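Form P-L/3: holo structure prediction, ligand zinc ion.
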Amino acid sequence: MEQIYTIPVNEAFEKGAENQGRGCPFCRLWRTLELHELDLILGASMMEPDVRKKTNEKGFCPDHYGKMMKRGKRLPLSLILQSHLPEIDSALKKPGIAPALAGGESSKGLKKLSESCYICERAEANFAKMIETAAILWETDPDFRYKCAAQPYFCLPHFSRFLSVAKGQMKGKTFGEFYKAVYKKESAVLDTLQDKIDRFAKSFDYRYAKEPWDDAKKAIEDTIPVLCGTDCSDDE
Ligand SMILES: [Zn+2]
Ligand SMILES: [Zn+2]
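OUTPUT (holo model):
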């Protein structure tokens, strides 16, 4: 197991266990990786020819263009775009004498360009290793099992991915134990949300006006991050 991933994974799970307001530990890890890539691409890496070659080829997703714009580094961003635009121009084939063929090729090439993102791909490569590391830690480090059980929740996209990585890495019996432990955590989270949402929805009905629902006021805000994850943008 690579130490380079063990430390941040352990840290994220420790902080999540200590502070229930931190949400899904994997969302936090993703956010750390993403911030690192944003810093690099608008700073030290921006002028490196091999990096520029990759940003030219891949471009960025709407989310990451938005996050780069928010940082206000307009010169680096304009230079990145300046050399990315010709890549798009070359994927946009001239109709020439076979316009149908050119149109088909453009459709393929532009689809590929619009679906790739330099930041997502770089962050994802490390993130995949972090999920693998979390599954290894669960298997080998009893302390990590406690940390895992003490998380506020795992968002569903990361929970399902954690399950699938663990299933691929663990022997059947160990995976069964792992599943029992994480199921306990996640099903309790869902039960709490269901209760909050039920009481929140009921609060609109005058017949239940006297029932207590103060802790359910943020039922919607509490539920959606568990379903979709959160990009923790407020941290910036
Ligand atoms: Zn998550
Ligand atoms: Zn992206």
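COMMENT: Residues 24, 26-27, 155, 158, 229 surround zinc ion (ligand 1) (CB under 6 Å).
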